[in-house]
Amino acid sequence: MLLSLAQWLQTLSPEFxxxxxxQYLTFRAVxxxxxxxxxxxxAGPAVIRRLRELKIGQPIRGYGMESHLSKSGTPxxxxxxxxxxxxVSTLLWADLSNRFVWIVLLVTLGFGAIGWVDDWxxxxxxxxxxxxxxxxxxxxSLIGLLAALYLVFSISESSNLRVLELFFNWVRSxxxxxxxxxxxxxLPFIKEVSYPLGVFGxxxxxxxxxxxxxNAVNLTDGLDGLAIMPVVMVGSALxxxxxxxGSSVYSKYLFFPHIxxxxxxxxxxxxxxxxxxxxxxxNTHPAQVFMGDVGAxxxxxxxxxxxxxxxxxxxxxxxxxxxxxxxxxxMLQVSFFKFTRKHFGEGRRLLKMAPLHHHFEKSGWKETQVxxxxxxxxxxLCLVGLSTLKLR
Length: 392
Description:
The protein contains 15 helices and two strands. By secondary structure, it is mainly α. A hairpin with a 7-residue loop joins strand 1 (about 185) and strand 2 (about 195). Helix 2 (about 25-55) runs parallel beside helix 10 and helix 3 (about 80-95) packs antiparallel against helix 10 (about 265-285).
């Protein structure tokens, strides 16, 4: 919005030439981060106060950690604050004609809406489980598949009309259209190697990345500040990849596919980082507010969508290793319990409690120790991911 305003002012008079600074991605990214941070810090107390007035308190599962019982009633759905900060900051500083900005924003808000309904049912019905898993999965799948179908053709085309034309051509051809090499699966640390996925392969991979990332972040969001800081770090790192693949110069130099328009996602990533840090101000131990599913599902989906656009799905799994391990810990715990119950008549557990962060709490780690150590691990994994920019 501000970019368009600056460009319009420049056409009125040479005196407004200094507004050319708005054309620089780096300048707008810094301003987006600051805007997201200031909105979050300014609106935070009012949002928390309003959540308290509405009695939107977090219900604690009876089989959960005993040390968490004192958190019962802490305002939840604080992810609304994050989404508000991201949306406003992105709309102010991003190029609103950019197709990637809109698809990421719509996916984020769509998954946020699913999380909002889930959280609302938990609060109104006093049910810690919230929305039924099957219902939640159906809505996540719908948004994930729609996003995947759009992205499969928009990676190589900058016009929405051209994307629509390619979609109809794909249908008319009997679902047989080859994608350009830039839409293939890139392997980190290997130069100029991509595996062709085809339309169906790209759609399936995109769907899995978006929905998987969303649920992985949601499972990680179990301790004060545990999920939001890794989201900030991974999102910021993805912003660097977006800047590189969006630049014809840097992408060529670093042997990355050039995806016109992807650089504008740096603005969204910066806004997410600023909004996340603002939320951490209120979410740090002892938390004044929890983000709830409305925040966790949305932020995870945003990371997955950005990773697909910049063709760094594997790098996302590396940098978001904490999210991956947390999700795997739940899957393994449930599978092992069902297997042992079926074959031995008694369900057994691999971990003391899942997700993984609760296992460490049961092992004697304090909550703050788990959180900070997971932050450190994420920081190291992000550095490994960023090293793939050059080590190829």
